[in-house]
Structures are given as C-alpha cells and as structure tokens.
Amino acid sequence: LRSRLSQIILLFQVNPGGKRQSQAPGMGLVNSTFREEQIQKLRTGNLGIGHTRYSTSGISGLQNCQPFVVETLHGKIAVAHNGELVNAKKLKMKVLRHGVGLSTSSDSELITQLLALTPPKEEADTPDWVARIRNLMTATLTSYSLLVMYKDVIYAVRDPYGNRPLCLGRLVPVSKFDSPKTEGWVVSSESCSFQSIGARYYREVLPGEIVQISKHGIKTLDRVPRPGGDPPAFCIFEYVYFARPDSIFEGQMVYTVRRRCGHQLAIEAPVDADLVSTVPESATPAALGYAQEAGLPYVEVLCKNRYVGRTFIQPNTRLRQLGVAQKFGALSDNFAGKRIVLIDDSIVRGNTISPIIKVLKEAGAKEVHIRVASPPIRFPCYMGINIPTKEELIANKPEFEDLAGYIGANSVVYLSVDGLLSAVQEGSKSLRPNSIISNGDNDSKSSPKQIGHCTACLTGKYPVELEW
C-alpha cells in the first residue's frame, strides 16, 4: 500500500506443504525496490505474507524489517504487524525474563516472541497457534492487526478494539471479475489494494476475530471480547488522513466520509470568499463537499509534484519540511486577486500549511482562509500513528492562540469533534458479515457489529489504560 508509505519492505512466502521458505527484504517503495527476478522467485509459493513498514516504535532500518520470522519448537512462524502495543515495556520484560534476547527495537518482535513462548497455563505445549494467539490478545488488548503464518496456514487477527484496519478479499478469475467463483483469499490493511491483484473486497476482519486462511477456505476460529462491554475503538485518523480514499471501512468508502466532513465544515465555518480549493490530495473530497455546501466554485490552486511522498509520514521534521518545499507549485492564473478558502485535512505539526499559504499569496491570492476538515490534534497517539509528543503539536503551542497570524492566513477554523463523529458515523453500518466461511459458503448467523471510534488524539480519552 503506497498510501501507507514504506521505508522497509519484506515479502515472505512458502511452497506447498510449508517445507521451504524464501524471503526478499528491501528499503523504499515497493515498485522501486523489487526487481522482476525477485518477484519471479516468490511466485513459486502458494502462500505468503508481506509488509510495508510505517515506523512508529523502533528506528527505520532493515533490522526492524517485517515479517518477523522465528524458529520455534514446532517449526518456523512469520508475523506481520500493523499498530503499536500500548503495554510494550511490560511485555518486553516478560519476554526477557524467559531468557529470550531481542534483536530489534520494534514492538512487533515482541508479538512474535510471545507467540513462540510457552503456551497458556493448563494447555499442552503443542503448535496450537489459536490458543497462543488468544493468550496474546488477552495480554495486550491493542493496537494490532496481525498476519501469522505457520506452515500452510495464515491467521488474520484484529485486536479486540479493532483499532487498526484489516479486511479480507477473494481472488476471482481474471476474465470474469464478477464471478462468484473463489480462487483464493487475500488479506490487507485496506481494501483498495485488492483490485490491482484481481481480488474483490469481501468483508472486514471483526474486532477480536481470529480468521484462519488455508487451502480449504477461510473460517472464523474465535472472537476475543473487549473487557466490560467497551465499544470498539477504530482509529478515526484513518478516515481523516491515513487511508486511501477508495478504501472501505465499516461499510462506507473513505472518500464519502471525507466529503461529508467538508459539508459539515461549511455549515460550521462559512466565510465570504470567491472559490474553494484544497491541499492535494487527501483533502480534495472535503474541499468538494465544502464547495457544494457553500455554493462556491471548486478551483485547483496548487500543482502537486507526484514524485514527492506524503510529508506527514516522513520520520523526522527536516524531511517533512523539505518535502513541502519540493511538493507544491501555484496555479496563479486560477486565483490571482481572489479570496481562497483552502481546505486541509489536518494540521498536526504546522510544517506544511505555512509555506503553502506563502506560495499562494506571493502568486497573487487576495486572501487565504484555512478550513481544516478535522479537529485540532492535541494529544499523542500510542497506537500506531507517529504523533509521539504533545510538545510537537501545533495545537499545544502558544502560537495556536493566533494560529492565523502564525501561519500567515486570514482566518483558521477547524471542524468540531462532534462534527467529525457525525460525518463518520452517519454512514457506518451494523453489518451482518459472513463470519464463518468454508469453500465460499455464506453464514448469516453472525451478530451485528458495534460501531465505535478512537478519538484519543483529539480528546485525550484513550480506549484503554496506558502502561509505561
């Protein structure tokens, strides 16, 4: 997934029977890292997992490359992880007390080692990976979506709070994309990746669900509950920025949610202006929604250099600032002498928006009014988004009292938390997913899915107690 920009990539696959494994690591984007001969080598297998790493816990380097592969008493396992463990330090001490050395700084290695440790009490020391996964899920409630591969089986796992996305797709015949026939199963953080490999979106892995994928099809093996009847806590920042707009979460397309955010923002924060535009590209749906609700024309004012990556998910401030300078050019003929409403999806650190406003005003904009299609980010994220300290957030700095003056805008208004939740939850669906499937058969006996979202970065209300 290029939208979840990777610095480190690893593909790992096995041949039929799980007796031979091969892997291919690299650093950079997938299409620029792997040569055709490497891909051809991996095509000999019938089962595989891959990972593109967005660094949160641990440094960016090949030593933190995933999937993590370890030899256990019962054979080799490979684990790929999206998320960040809220009690990683406690789990690290548990692993170290068992005499297991850790070779990386990634919390994802902890998951692999915990699975390889002795099984839960009163259970035999057998390769019962479902019992081991269940034990892991009770030891750490969030945040993770996992793929665990053992021999000729893959387990797809989502934490009980469903904080990180995970979805299932089915491979269909290339010549008949609408065919009901299933030729295989795939798993991804986002559904947008399925079309490029000839797969169709099937459903989400539910919070707390353990799904087995094998030559016999897919099957739900267990569902680990949340304590005390807590609601799910899907990361709302996935909708705001992180996900690709054509991905589907909770039965709705991300693009549609972002457009609704723009509608709501126009209701909450109108302004006298001549046109509406966007900071491309993740804010484009919100800008279109704002323009429609406000009755203003949508006009492009910035040209994006598509060869520069997404600035927010660069690992340090210097790279983010350099990315902004290289990323945008002004389309001055479209806005000279006019008042612009510029829609951004979020202002987290303030590295991006100030130089953009400067570019627009130097190119002839009469006024630039910033409207942000999400609330101010005020608190760190400890569950998989790289927002590690309160001090680096613009909403917590003295300059926030006069943010418009600080960034050079004529005005700045954010979407409210209630407005964001309304836009997200308006289209969330209580689905009855096909949760137990074998050979493509559907099962309609599943219970409806609860809807809930983590807004900790906006409100400081974390879904679980943080352990240090």
Question: What's a quick, concise take on this entry?
Answer:
By secondary structure, this protein is α+β, with helices and mostly antiparallel strands. Helices cover 24% and strands 24% of the residues. Helix 4 crosses helix 5, helix 7 (254-268) crosses helix 8 and helix 7 runs antiparallel to helix 12.
Instruction: Kindly report the average pLDDT value.
Output: 84
Strand order of the largest sheet: 4-5-6-7-11-12
Spans where pLDDT lies below 50 across 5 or more residues: 430-448
Structural class: alpha+beta
How many discrete domains? 2
- The first-level CATH class of the largest domain is given as Alpha Beta
Taking the sheet with the most strands, its summary is: 6 strands, antiparallel
Tell me the strand percentage band: 15-25%
Radius of gyration: 23 Å
CATH architecture classification name of the largest domain = 4-Layer Sandwich
Helix count from the secondary structure assignment: 13
* Total beta-strand segments: 22
CATH structural fold name of the largest domain: Glutamine Phosphoribosylpyrophosphate, subunit 1, domain 1
CA(first)-CA(last) distance = 31 Å
Helicity, as a percent range: 10-25%
Shape: globular
Report on the structure:
The structure is a single chain. The protein has 468 residues and is an alpha+beta fold. The chain folds into two domains: 8-250 and 433-459, Aminohydrolase, N-terminal nucleophile (Ntn) domain (Glutamine Phosphoribosylpyrophosphate, subunit 1, domain 1), CATH 3.60.20; 253-422, Rossmann fold (3-Layer(aba) Sandwich). It has 13 helices and 22 strands. Helix 4 packs across helix 5, helix 7 crosses helix 8 and helix 7 packs antiparallel against helix 12. Mean pLDDT is 84; it is low at 430-448.
